[in-house]
Amino acid sequence: MATAETLLRDLCNRIDACAWDTLVELLHPDFVCRYAHTGETLGGPEWVRLNAEYPGFQRLEILDAVASGDRAVARALIVGGPDSADQKFQVASFITERDGLIAELTEVWTDVGQTPPEDARPQ
Q1: Which residues touch 60 (CB under 8 Å, ≥6 apart)?
Q2: Which of helix, strand or coil describes residue 41?
Q3: What is the pTM of this model?
Q4: Model confidence over 78-114: pLDDT tens digits?
Q5: 61-64 long-range contacts, Cβ below 8 Å, gap at least 24?
Q6: CATH fold of 4-113, please?
Q7: Where are the chain's structural domains?
């Protein structure tokens, strides 16, 4: 049976390879994805379609991963954007494994290279 860490790494590798039609193989029938930054909740087919149709996706690189029991989290760099722009994002992806599949996924996205507000910088 797959562990949470192997499932998460496999998911990231398949996304990097644009193997969209194979993502559903990793998802539990009750799969749900939550986007913490927007409040959206998606089922498996909607989440796969959103990823497959994302404009200009180029690559995903795992920067860090931690796992314990049925939970795993990865911080990844995403490169791509509309019109082949070289936009960079980071995403933290938290999964819960159930029955050898990904049952829950929570993602938190941010742009890379933002400048902190003046009043938030150390003096």
Answers
A1: 12, 15, 16, 76, 77, 78, 79
A2: strand
A3: 0.87
A4: 998 776 668 888 999 999 999 999 999 999 988 666 6
A5: 61/16, 62/9, 62/12, 63/90
A6: Nuclear Transport Factor 2; Chain: A, (3.10.450)
A7: 4-113
